[in-house]
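Supplementary Text 2. Reproducibility record for the structural model of the 233-residue chain.

All settings were left at their defaults, and a single model was retained for analysis rather than an ensemble. We include the record here because the model underlies the residue-level annotations in Supplementary Table 4.
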Amino acid sequence: MAAYTKMISKSDIDKKNVFIHPDSKISPGIHFARNITVYQKVFIGKNVYISDNSIIGQPPKSIKSVRTLLKSPGRTVIGPNVIIGSNVIIYAGCNIKSGAMIADQASIRENCSIGRNTIIGRASTVENNTKIGDLCKIETGAHITGNAIIKKNVFIGPHVTMTNDKYMGKIKNIQLIGPIIESGAKIGANVTILPAVKIGKLAIIGAGSVVTRDVGKGITVIGVPAKPILNND
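Retained model, structure tokens:
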């Protein structure tokens, strides 16, 4: 039987249509809204808020046409004081650290790490095996590609798109490499970042830019393709 707290009675679980897998562990002070599913191998820390229609620990599935080899995900961990919005799906093997907020309709794919006090905006997607550091802000509708690395205190504007395959599926069996965004970088709205691009510490990417090559520390770039205009050091 899952570890129910005193605040979550069996009758409340039934009334709210909450399913908790017996292999999962729930800490004190959890607030469940309605229609919540918690799959196996999930640990939820203290004082977590989960809104309507959200799924925690979703097991990943695949079809033959998907090139990414799915690794068996480990335990899903939701740290203390995390807020999870409505219609959120957090896949198995993710680690959502303390104080993070996952806004409505966001999707966090398997084996991702979300740092402390980081915000994942409404309807954003974080693809598999991505690491996002502490104190980041990912705005509405951003697409964070698989295997990306985002260091701490990064701002990513609305509808930013990151990619990890420059051949767009034409060449099989290649390594998919997402961008690396160093600490303190700021990415404007509607920016597109190509695979394996490195964006340096405190760099700024102007809105609407297409980043095709590495951006150095403290550099501001704009345009299509993005080119430097200012050194912020």
